[in-house]
Structures are given as structure tokens and as C-alpha cells.
Amino acid sequence: MCGIIGIVGKEQVADRLVDGLRRMEYRGYDSAGVCTVEGGQLIRRRAEGKLGNLVIELARNPAQGLIGIAHTRWATHGAPTTSNAHPHATEQVALVHNGIIENFKPLREALTARGRKFESETDTEVVAHLVSEQVEAGLSPQDAVKAVLPQLRGAFALAIAFRAHDDMLIGARLGSPLVVGYGEGETYLGSDALALAPLTQRITYLEEGDWVVITREGAQIFDTDNNEVTRPIVASGATAAAIEKGNYRHFMQKEIFEQPVVVAQTLRSYLRRVEQTVALPQIDFDLASINRVTIVACGTSFYAAMVAKYWFEQFARLPVDIDVASEFRYRDPVLEEGGLSLFISQSGETADTLAALRHCKAAGQTIAVVVNVPTSTMAREADLLLPTHAGPEIGVASTKAFTCQLAVLAALAAHLAVKRGRMNRAEEAAIVEHLVEVPAALNAALAHDEEIAAMAHLIAPARDVLYLGRGADYPLALEGALKLKEISYIHAEGYASGEMKHGPIALIDELVPVIVLAPSGPLFEKTVSNMQEVRARGGKVVLISDAEGIAEAGEGCLATIEMPKVHPLIAPLVYAVPVQLLAYHVAVAKGTDVDQPRNLAKSVTVE
Ligand code: G6P
Question: Cis peptide leading into 87, omega within 30 of 0?
Fold first, then answer.
């Protein structure tokens, strides 16, 4: 989603602002802009489409200045045109915004009635006018912002520049993240630490409701009640290198191949190899007393939740409710007293998941989160933080974060099982051993990269693709279909194998490839029957299974992809690899923008 950067600097800022925007490209955007302050003027340049267009515009019409703000916009209110691109400005004020101003309509009507003229269709422009009105009435920038913030409803991160002040910017956050960065005689604002990585490692994460005045000397932070507050300065740890592609063609490809390392890294903090036990962070809550777990997430993280449901029920005999966050919070869910609510999110900022978390917290639930960004809002609001150690995930389509989530959830399932007396020491030790094997199994799965690349041309021409799976591999079928549609724009559906004959079978013909995920095991025969139903109708099957499964049912398939034979607990992690690679290579074959697919955002901070 939208990315924000602001610099109060001692050198020219335009190029550095654009560089910061480049670091946030991964969030997804459809227009971009910058505004500098120089000689008592606001100098604004904007362009629709990719950042390259803004760079061309800046080459034609440079924006001088030692201070400025910049933005990548993911359209919510108003089409992705230049006039809707940020910064939005009046004579006095320019600002950039991430989030949504929910009450923008009445605000806009009132402003229009007071004679203000609007240039865009955005919700953001009302804030520029509101602040401007106050400045025109003679208020200082600080007092103007102080007067306007309480009028805004919704979620926002803002960075505001003032025509008459070339020594300060004001930032504010409510619902959308914003960080302050400290340099040598320079101070920065950014949506995340990554955007500021080449500028500084010294970061302050603003709290909900905070607003901040940054100058070359530093930052003055105020809370919702306008009291000056001190927030800790931390080392961000975000390095510029972490967001480079290295020898890979795309971030997604790099991230798929990082999985053995990052999953091992993640497991290391949840497993005690010597004792052969699962170890979780200490909490002030008796996990043995839980009667029910509610798991809520969005997108790929929701499919991790689906897998977790199978594991928690099977291993810990613990009833689990799962839901996508956007449905959960509005369906008035029944939350048992003393229950555990678990939220899964790569970013830790997804607006719907965060709102669901707060709903559960208000209802007295204990809050656990599995997040990849340890400084995120969800991480900070949780009672139990279960971090994944996937490192920054830049590709919009989630890959390594997903397998790391599964690693944590598998460890949690085992831990709950032990706590509930459903798993003895020997069983726990066996589970630990299986989890330790995951990185090697992921490597074995990745070894099929070339073969999968070679078969991509079989799938690339398809208009529709079906993915089938059973048990804990059913969510993998959903994930495979999601990956394919996200980055190759081919319509794809995931189905529980047994459900196929209740509808999707009507779609089967020789033009609809069916990808079957079926490790050998007790349910294999049943899935093979479903495959036969496809084949009997002229359908073309790609079977992803182990050597045993392929020997039994591979004949007559359009293609087969052989996975290592693994314990059912770790199969979902391993089978994630071929579906990721298949989607990746099909997208490359189709020539789509793999890392920044159209219309998608990495972190969805609006509801
Ligand atoms: C967006 C991303 C997906 C991601 C989903 C949930 O839709 O494009 O890749 O799975 O949000 O994000 P989260 O950060 O909460 O896991």
C-alpha cells in the first residue's frame, strides 16, 4: 500500500526521496509524487504509473530543496491518475497520506461550502485544505495540525510540508505505521524502516495517535492528548542489502530460494535440539487451560491458519475456529471466556486483521500473534509474540513468510499437544526430528526448479486452472491457486479433492489443467480416484507427489513433480515450494510483473 517518506536534510532531497520510494515499490502502487520546499514555494512533481515516469518528470522539471515529502499511491478513492497522486497541496501546505479518511465526504462538503476548491477525487485532499485553513487563519504549523487531527476519522499516516517553513515537517499516525529516522543533522519520516535503510539505522516507531515535528535537530513527539512524549530510539536492523535481488531475477524467486535458510532460522528459536523439545516464549497464561482457539488472518496468512487448524485439532485435540479477518469482525463471533485468539500476518499491519485483534482484545481474549515484522503494530499489541524470522519479504506474493508461519504453527501445535497431555516425550522428540528435517526437504523440493520452469509453458496458455488437495494439503491447493492468479492473472481455484465432483468437475476439459497435490499416505487412494474422474473427462493432470505416489498414479499425467517423502506434518511446508515455483515460472513465461502484480498491495492497511 501507499509508501511515505519525508526528509528534512542538509543536502538536496529529490533523488533521495525517489530512492526511498523505490524501496517501498514492493508495497504495490499505481502513481507517485514528490514535493520539496524551496524559497518559500512548494515544488510538486507527480506522475501516474511506475516510478520511472516520476523520474522522467523530475528530469524535465527538477525539484530543488533541502526538505521534502514523497509518496507512492495505491488508489482507494479516485482513479490512479496524476491529479489524484500525492502530494496533495494548497498554496500553503502539501501532504502525503497512507490510509483512509472515512469521514472525508462531510468534511469535503463543509470545505466546499466554505469556498475551497478541490483538484482531486481523493479523501486526502480534505486534510490539505483543513490544515491550510488553519495556517491561513494565522496558526503555527503545530497548532494547525493539532486543530485538524481530532476532526479526522479512519486510518492514516501523514507527512505534511509547509510553504513558509523550510526547516520542518510534521508527521502523524493513527492506524497506519510511521517511523522517525535520525541522521547527522538530518531527520526523516518513513512508512517503514526499510525505506530509511540507506539513510539511518536509528529509528523511532510512533505509537497510535502520535504526531511529530521533525527538524534538522531531531524530533518532538506528542501523543493524542498533545502531551510531549519520549519514544525509544531503536536500531532498525533493516539493511539496504536485505532488499536487493542479488543474483536472482525477481524478489519472489530469491525469497522462494531463501526458504531452507529462513525456515531453519525460524525453527531454531522454537526447537531445543539437544533436549528434543519445543520451546515457546514465556507467557503469563496457562496454555493448558485453553478450550478453544480462534485463528484470524487474511490472504496467504489465512491459508497458514487453515493448515494450523488441521494440526491443532489432530495433535492437540483442541477445537479451532478460523476465519478471514474481514468477515470475522463483522459476524459477531462467539468468543469463549479465557480463550486464545491467534492472528497470523506477515506485515503485522493488515487493517482487517488488526481490527479483529483489537475486537478480541476488547472481548477479554488472550492475544497471540505470528508476525514477520517484530516492530509491527500487531507485535506490539499482543500478549504472546511468536515471530517468524523470514527477513524482509519484498515480492507481493507471499512465499517465505508462509512457510515460516507454518514452521511456527507446527511448533505451536506440538507445544499445545504437550501442554494438554496429548503428546508424550517420545512423540514430541519425533516431531522435533521431523521439523529439523524441513530445511533439507525444502532444498530437495527446490531442486525441481528447472523441471518446473520447463513445464510452465503447459500451464501458461490456460484460462482456468484447478488445484486439488486433501487434509492439510487442501489449504496448499488454495494457496497454489492464489499464487497463480496473483502473479500470472490466470483464473485459478483451489478445491478439496472430494469437493470437485460437487461443481468444478463441470469445468473440466482438455483446456483446464488440474494440479493435484497428493503425498502418498492414507488419503492418497481417494485423491487418485478424484484424479481419475478428471482424466475420464479429458482433463490434464499435473501430479505433485512423492516417488511412491508417482509410481502408483503418475502414468497418463500431463506432468509429474516428485517431492521428497516426508512426514504428513511437514508436507504442507514442502508442497508449498512446487506451487510457488509453478506460479513463478508461469508468470515469467507470460511476462507479467512478478514482484509488483497489477492492483495488488503487499500490506493492505485499509479495510
Ligand atoms: C496482501 C498480500 C498477501 C498477503 C495478505 C495478508 O493481500 O498481497 O501476500 O498474504 O495481504 O497480509 P499479511 O501481512 O497480514 O500476512
Answer: yes
287 and 196 belong to one structural domain: no
Residue 421 grid cell:
497431555
How far does residue 351's CA lie from ligand 1's centre (Å)? 10
353 lines ligand 1 (CB under 6 A): yes
How many CB atoms are located within 10 Å of the residue 179 CB?
27
pLDDT score for 531 = 87
List the grid coordinates of 491. 483464473
For residue 368, the cross-strand partners are: 342, 384
Is 399 close to ligand 1, i.e. is its CB under 6 Å away? no
Closest CA to 174 of 120, 243, 235, 101: 101
Q: Is residue 473 part of a domain?
A: yes
- What mean pLDDT, rounded, does the chain reach? 93
**Same domain membership, residue 534 and residue 464:** yes
**79 and 204 share one domain:** yes
What's the 306 CA to ligand 1 centre distance in angstroms? Answer: 15
Q: Is 316 helix (H, G, I), strand (E, B) or coil?
A: helix
Residues 192 and 163 in one domain: yes
Contact of 157 with 200, CB cutoff 8 Å: no
Q: Report the SS3 class of residue 498.
A: helix
How many angstroms separate the alpha carbon of residue 475 from the centre of ligand 1? 15
Q: Residue 222's domain spans which residues?
A: 3-242
Atom index in ligand 1 nearest the CA of residue 398 equals: 9
* 29, 478, 604: residue to mutate for ligand 1 pocket, most atoms within 8 A of CB: 604
Determine whether the shortest distance from the Cβ of 346 to ligand 1 is under 6 A: yes
Q: What is the count of structural domains for the chain?
A: 3
The predicted pLDDT at position 242 comes to: 61
Confidence of residue 194 (pLDDT cuts 50, 70, 90): confident
pTM value is 0.84
End residue of a domain, out of 242, 272, 304: 242
350 lines ligand 1 (CB under 6 A): yes
Q: What is the mean pLDDT of residues 89-94?
A: 96
187 close to ligand 1 (CB < 6 Angstrom)? no
Which atom of ligand 1 is found nearest the CA of 301? 16
The tens digit of pLDDT for each residue in 509-552 reads: 888 999 999 999 888 988 888 888 888 888 899 999 999 999 99
Same domain, 412 and 550: no
Q: Whose CA is nearest to atom 4 of ligand 1?
A: 299
Domain boundary among 216, 242, 268: 242
**pLDDT tens, residue by residue, 422-441:** 999 999 999 999 999 999 99
| Start-to-end C-alpha separation, the chain | 12
pLDDT of 241 reads 59
Using pLDDT thresholds of 50, 70 and 90, give the confidence band for residue 75: confident
Is residue 578 in some structural domain? yes
State whether 464 and 400 are in the same domain. Answer: no
Tell me how far apart the alpha carbons of residues 85 and 32 are, in angstroms, rounded to a whole number.
Answer: 6
Are 395 and 472 part of one and the same domain? no
Q: Provide the CA 520 distance to its chain's centre, in angstroms.
A: 33
Q: Does residue 298's CB lie within 6 angstroms of at least one atom of ligand 1?
A: yes
Q: How far is the CA of 137 from the centre of ligand 1 (A)?
A: 43
Q: Tell me, in angstroms, the distance from the centre of ligand 1 to residue 345's CA.
A: 7
Which residues are identified as catalytic?
A: 2, 602
Q: Is 604 in the pocket of ligand 1 (CB under 6 A)?
A: yes
β-pairing, 154-162 vs 165-174, is antiparallel
Share of the chain above pLDDT 90, in %: 77
Q: Are residues 285 and 391 in the same domain?
A: yes
